[in-house]
Write a structure and sequence with these properties.
alpha/beta, 10 helices, Rossmann fold, single chain
Length: about 290
Protein backbone atom coordinates (compact mmCIF):
# COMPACT_ATOMS: atom_id res chain seq x y z
CA UNK A 1 0.00 0.00 0.00
CA UNK A 2 1.18 3.48 -0.90
CA UNK A 3 -0.07 6.55 0.96
CA UNK A 4 -1.03 9.29 -1.54
CA UNK A 5 -2.38 12.82 -1.40
CA UNK A 6 -4.30 14.79 -4.01
CA UNK A 7 -6.31 18.00 -4.22
CA UNK A 8 -10.07 18.51 -4.48
CA UNK A 9 -11.33 22.08 -4.79
CA UNK A 10 -8.42 23.33 -2.70
CA UNK A 11 -8.74 20.63 -0.02
CA UNK A 12 -6.02 18.02 0.45
CA UNK A 13 -7.35 14.46 0.41
CA UNK A 14 -5.49 11.36 1.58
CA UNK A 15 -5.81 7.92 0.07
CA UNK A 16 -4.35 4.44 0.25
CA UNK A 17 -3.26 3.12 -3.14
CA UNK A 18 -3.05 -0.60 -3.86
CA UNK A 19 -1.62 -2.37 -6.90
CA UNK A 20 0.73 0.34 -8.14
CA UNK A 21 3.80 -1.01 -9.87
CA UNK A 22 5.62 -1.38 -13.15
CA UNK A 23 3.67 -1.09 -16.36
CA UNK A 24 0.38 0.61 -17.13
CA UNK A 25 -2.77 -0.78 -15.53
CA UNK A 26 -6.50 -0.10 -15.27
CA UNK A 27 -7.57 1.77 -12.15
CA UNK A 28 -10.52 2.07 -9.79
CA UNK A 29 -11.55 4.94 -7.49
CA UNK A 30 -13.49 3.58 -4.49
CA UNK A 31 -16.00 5.53 -2.40
CA UNK A 32 -17.62 4.11 0.72
CA UNK A 33 -20.86 4.51 2.69
CA UNK A 34 -22.26 7.49 4.58
CA UNK A 35 -19.73 8.70 7.22
CA UNK A 36 -17.18 6.15 5.94
CA UNK A 37 -13.46 6.16 6.44
CA UNK A 38 -11.25 4.47 3.89
CA UNK A 39 -10.00 1.77 6.29
CA UNK A 40 -13.49 0.29 6.42
CA UNK A 41 -15.25 -1.28 3.41
CA UNK A 42 -13.22 0.58 0.72
CA UNK A 43 -9.98 -1.04 1.87
CA UNK A 44 -11.52 -4.52 1.67
CA UNK A 45 -12.16 -4.02 -2.04
CA UNK A 46 -9.01 -2.01 -2.79
CA UNK A 47 -6.77 -4.79 -1.48
CA UNK A 48 -8.48 -7.41 -3.61
CA UNK A 49 -8.53 -5.28 -6.75
CA UNK A 50 -4.87 -4.39 -6.27
CA UNK A 51 -3.98 -8.08 -6.24
CA UNK A 52 -5.91 -8.61 -9.48
CA UNK A 53 -4.04 -6.12 -11.66
CA UNK A 54 -5.82 -2.87 -10.87
CA UNK A 55 -4.48 0.32 -9.34
CA UNK A 56 -7.11 0.75 -6.63
CA UNK A 57 -7.57 3.95 -4.62
CA UNK A 58 -9.42 3.97 -1.29
CA UNK A 59 -9.55 7.57 -0.05
CA UNK A 60 -11.15 9.66 2.67
CA UNK A 61 -13.62 12.26 1.49
CA UNK A 62 -13.06 15.70 2.98
CA UNK A 63 -14.11 16.27 6.59
CA UNK A 64 -13.28 12.68 7.64
CA UNK A 65 -10.34 10.43 8.37
CA UNK A 66 -6.93 11.58 7.18
CA UNK A 67 -8.30 14.07 4.66
CA UNK A 68 -8.47 17.77 5.44
CA UNK A 69 -11.48 20.05 5.51
CA UNK A 70 -13.62 21.63 8.18
CA UNK A 71 -16.04 21.35 9.83
CA UNK A 72 -15.34 17.73 10.64
CA UNK A 73 -18.09 15.16 10.26
CA UNK A 74 -19.96 17.17 7.60
CA UNK A 75 -21.80 14.95 5.11
CA UNK A 76 -22.03 17.16 2.04
CA UNK A 77 -22.97 15.20 -1.12
CA UNK A 78 -21.92 17.97 -3.53
CA UNK A 79 -18.45 18.03 -1.98
CA UNK A 80 -18.27 14.23 -2.08
CA UNK A 81 -19.01 14.36 -5.81
CA UNK A 82 -16.14 16.82 -6.25
CA UNK A 83 -13.85 14.55 -4.23
CA UNK A 84 -14.72 11.46 -6.26
CA UNK A 85 -14.16 13.36 -9.49
CA UNK A 86 -10.79 14.51 -8.12
CA UNK A 87 -9.90 10.89 -7.27
CA UNK A 88 -10.64 9.84 -10.86
CA UNK A 89 -8.57 12.74 -12.21
CA UNK A 90 -5.71 11.82 -9.88
CA UNK A 91 -5.67 8.24 -11.15
CA UNK A 92 -5.82 9.35 -14.77
CA UNK A 93 -2.74 11.52 -14.26
CA UNK A 94 -0.59 8.68 -12.89
CA UNK A 95 2.06 7.24 -15.19
CA UNK A 96 1.17 3.67 -14.16
CA UNK A 97 -2.53 4.08 -15.04
CA UNK A 98 -4.21 3.81 -18.43
CA UNK A 99 -6.30 7.02 -18.45
CA UNK A 100 -8.92 5.36 -20.66
CA UNK A 101 -9.41 2.50 -18.17
CA UNK A 102 -10.43 4.30 -14.96
CA UNK A 103 -13.62 3.03 -13.32
CA UNK A 104 -15.58 3.76 -10.13
CA UNK A 105 -16.64 1.37 -7.38
CA UNK A 106 -19.16 2.61 -4.80
CA UNK A 107 -20.52 1.02 -1.63
CA UNK A 108 -23.84 1.92 0.04
CA UNK A 109 -24.52 5.68 -0.05
CA UNK A 110 -21.40 6.15 -2.12
CA UNK A 111 -23.54 4.82 -4.97
CA UNK A 112 -25.65 7.97 -5.09
CA UNK A 113 -22.46 10.06 -5.21
CA UNK A 114 -20.99 7.86 -7.93
CA UNK A 115 -24.04 8.33 -10.17
CA UNK A 116 -23.56 12.07 -10.18
CA UNK A 117 -19.79 11.88 -10.71
CA UNK A 118 -20.11 9.34 -13.53
CA UNK A 119 -22.75 11.51 -15.20
CA UNK A 120 -20.59 14.64 -14.96
CA UNK A 121 -17.22 13.19 -15.89
CA UNK A 122 -16.34 12.23 -19.45
CA UNK A 123 -14.78 8.86 -20.08
CA UNK A 124 -15.36 6.92 -16.86
CA UNK A 125 -14.88 3.38 -18.15
CA UNK A 126 -17.44 1.62 -15.95
CA UNK A 127 -19.36 1.92 -12.70
CA UNK A 128 -20.07 -0.78 -10.11
CA UNK A 129 -22.26 -0.21 -7.06
CA UNK A 130 -22.55 -2.63 -4.15
CA UNK A 131 -25.45 -2.57 -1.64
CA UNK A 132 -26.20 0.94 -2.80
CA UNK A 133 -28.20 3.51 -0.86
CA UNK A 134 -29.88 5.12 -3.87
CA UNK A 135 -31.30 8.55 -3.09
CA UNK A 136 -34.78 9.73 -4.07
CA UNK A 137 -37.71 11.12 -2.10
CA UNK A 138 -39.54 7.79 -2.02
CA UNK A 139 -36.47 6.16 -0.51
CA UNK A 140 -36.05 8.93 2.07
CA UNK A 141 -39.67 8.50 3.11
CA UNK A 142 -39.18 4.74 3.44
CA UNK A 143 -36.01 5.36 5.45
CA UNK A 144 -37.23 8.12 7.79
CA UNK A 145 -40.98 8.50 7.35
CA UNK A 146 -42.67 11.82 6.53
CA UNK A 147 -42.47 13.18 10.08
CA UNK A 148 -38.89 12.02 10.57
CA UNK A 149 -37.79 13.43 7.23
CA UNK A 150 -39.33 16.83 7.88
CA UNK A 151 -37.96 16.95 11.43
CA UNK A 152 -34.43 16.15 10.26
CA UNK A 153 -34.66 18.68 7.46
CA UNK A 154 -35.79 21.39 9.88
CA UNK A 155 -32.99 20.61 12.35
CA UNK A 156 -30.43 20.45 9.58
CA UNK A 157 -31.45 23.74 8.02
CA UNK A 158 -31.47 25.47 11.42
CA UNK A 159 -28.00 24.09 12.20
CA UNK A 160 -26.68 25.21 8.81
CA UNK A 161 -28.08 28.71 9.28
CA UNK A 162 -26.40 28.83 12.69
CA UNK A 163 -23.07 27.72 11.19
CA UNK A 164 -23.25 30.27 8.39
CA UNK A 165 -24.09 33.05 10.87
CA UNK A 166 -21.72 32.17 13.72
CA UNK A 167 -19.32 29.46 12.58
CA UNK A 168 -20.61 27.18 15.37
CA UNK A 169 -21.32 23.55 14.48
CA UNK A 170 -24.01 21.45 16.15
CA UNK A 171 -23.15 17.76 16.45
CA UNK A 172 -24.92 14.50 17.22
CA UNK A 173 -23.60 10.97 17.05
CA UNK A 174 -23.14 9.47 13.63
CA UNK A 175 -24.72 6.23 14.87
CA UNK A 176 -26.67 5.15 17.93
CA UNK A 177 -28.76 2.04 18.63
CA UNK A 178 -31.65 3.92 20.32
CA UNK A 179 -31.53 7.65 19.52
CA UNK A 180 -33.27 8.27 16.18
CA UNK A 181 -31.93 11.86 15.97
CA UNK A 182 -28.49 10.79 14.77
CA UNK A 183 -26.93 10.44 11.34
CA UNK A 184 -27.47 6.68 10.98
CA UNK A 185 -29.98 5.43 13.56
CA UNK A 186 -30.66 1.81 14.39
CA UNK A 187 -29.19 -1.08 16.29
CA UNK A 188 -27.99 -3.08 13.28
CA UNK A 189 -26.04 -0.06 12.01
CA UNK A 190 -24.52 0.68 15.42
CA UNK A 191 -23.57 -2.97 15.89
CA UNK A 192 -21.28 -2.58 12.90
CA UNK A 193 -19.96 0.96 13.48
CA UNK A 194 -19.79 0.89 17.28
CA UNK A 195 -16.68 -1.32 17.52
CA UNK A 196 -14.86 0.97 15.07
CA UNK A 197 -15.61 3.90 17.38
CA UNK A 198 -14.57 1.96 20.48
CA UNK A 199 -11.22 1.17 18.86
CA UNK A 200 -10.69 4.84 17.99
CA UNK A 201 -10.65 4.00 14.27
CA UNK A 202 -13.79 5.91 13.30
CA UNK A 203 -15.24 9.12 14.71
CA UNK A 204 -18.84 8.71 15.85
CA UNK A 205 -19.76 12.32 15.16
CA UNK A 206 -22.14 13.88 12.65
CA UNK A 207 -22.63 17.56 11.87
CA UNK A 208 -26.39 18.20 12.18
CA UNK A 209 -26.26 20.63 9.26
CA UNK A 210 -25.41 17.63 7.06
CA UNK A 211 -29.13 16.91 6.85
CA UNK A 212 -29.71 20.23 5.08
CA UNK A 213 -27.45 19.01 2.28
CA UNK A 214 -28.00 15.27 2.36
CA UNK A 215 -31.80 15.26 2.42
CA UNK A 216 -32.08 17.64 -0.52
CA UNK A 217 -29.77 15.44 -2.60
CA UNK A 218 -31.04 12.81 -5.02
CA UNK A 219 -29.42 10.52 -7.57
CA UNK A 220 -32.41 9.44 -9.66
CA UNK A 221 -32.01 12.31 -12.14
CA UNK A 222 -28.37 11.35 -12.62
CA UNK A 223 -29.42 7.77 -13.32
CA UNK A 224 -31.67 9.01 -16.11
CA UNK A 225 -28.69 10.63 -17.86
CA UNK A 226 -26.19 7.82 -17.26
CA UNK A 227 -23.84 6.93 -20.12
CA UNK A 228 -21.38 4.86 -18.07
CA UNK A 229 -21.86 1.06 -18.16
CA UNK A 230 -23.26 0.07 -14.76
CA UNK A 231 -23.15 -3.06 -12.61
CA UNK A 232 -25.53 -3.10 -9.62
CA UNK A 233 -25.03 -5.69 -6.86
CA UNK A 234 -28.02 -5.62 -4.52
CA UNK A 235 -30.82 -7.73 -3.08
CA UNK A 236 -33.91 -7.83 -0.92
CA UNK A 237 -31.74 -7.98 2.23
CA UNK A 238 -29.92 -4.79 1.23
CA UNK A 239 -31.05 -1.28 2.14
CA UNK A 240 -34.05 0.11 0.22
CA UNK A 241 -34.31 -2.49 -2.57
CA UNK A 242 -37.20 -0.61 -4.20
CA UNK A 243 -35.00 2.48 -4.60
CA UNK A 244 -32.39 0.28 -6.27
CA UNK A 245 -35.01 -1.02 -8.69
CA UNK A 246 -36.20 2.51 -9.48
CA UNK A 247 -32.68 3.57 -10.37
CA UNK A 248 -32.08 0.57 -12.61
CA UNK A 249 -35.39 1.21 -14.36
CA UNK A 250 -34.47 4.87 -14.83
CA UNK A 251 -31.24 4.41 -16.78
CA UNK A 252 -31.42 4.75 -20.58
CA UNK A 253 -32.54 1.52 -22.24
CA UNK A 254 -29.44 1.36 -24.46
CA UNK A 255 -27.02 1.63 -21.53
CA UNK A 256 -24.98 -1.52 -20.90
CA UNK A 257 -26.17 -2.53 -17.44
CA UNK A 258 -26.25 -5.67 -15.31
CA UNK A 259 -27.94 -6.54 -12.03
CA UNK A 260 -26.68 -9.17 -9.59
CA UNK A 261 -29.54 -9.72 -7.13
CA UNK A 262 -29.29 -12.20 -4.28
CA UNK A 263 -30.10 -12.61 -0.58
CA UNK A 264 -26.77 -11.37 0.87
CA UNK A 265 -27.33 -9.10 3.91
CA UNK A 266 -26.38 -5.46 3.37
CA UNK A 267 -23.58 -5.25 5.92
CA UNK A 268 -22.02 -8.54 4.77
CA UNK A 269 -20.70 -6.55 1.82
CA UNK A 270 -18.71 -4.41 4.29
CA UNK A 271 -16.58 -7.05 6.00
CA UNK A 272 -17.58 -10.67 5.27
CA UNK A 273 -14.86 -12.27 3.12
CA UNK A 274 -17.17 -14.60 1.18
CA UNK A 275 -19.57 -11.81 0.21
CA UNK A 276 -16.73 -9.42 -0.64
CA UNK A 277 -14.93 -12.08 -2.71
CA UNK A 278 -18.09 -12.80 -4.74
CA UNK A 279 -18.78 -9.13 -5.28
CA UNK A 280 -15.18 -8.37 -6.23
CA UNK A 281 -15.24 -11.18 -8.80
CA UNK A 282 -18.36 -9.69 -10.39
CA UNK A 283 -16.81 -6.21 -10.36
CA UNK A 284 -13.59 -7.36 -12.01
CA UNK A 285 -15.51 -9.24 -14.70
CA UNK A 286 -17.63 -6.15 -15.38
CA UNK A 287 -14.67 -3.78 -15.56
CA UNK A 288 -12.78 -6.11 -17.89
CA UNK A 289 -15.76 -6.60 -20.19
Amino acid sequence: MEKVKFNSAGVELTGDLYGAGEGVRPAVAIIGPMTYQKEQAPTQYARRLGLQGFVALAYDSRYRGESAGTPRGWENPAHKVEDLEAAVDYLRAREDVDPDQVSILAICQGASIAFRAAAELDGVKALATIAGHYRDREGDLEWLGEDGLQARLARGEAAKAKYEATGEVDYVKASDPVDMNVGMPGGFVFDWYGPWAERGEWENRYAVMSDADLLHYESLSAAKSMTTPWLMIHGDNCFLPNAARRHMQAVPSKLPAKTVWDDTPHLAYYDQPDAIDRATSEVIDWFIR
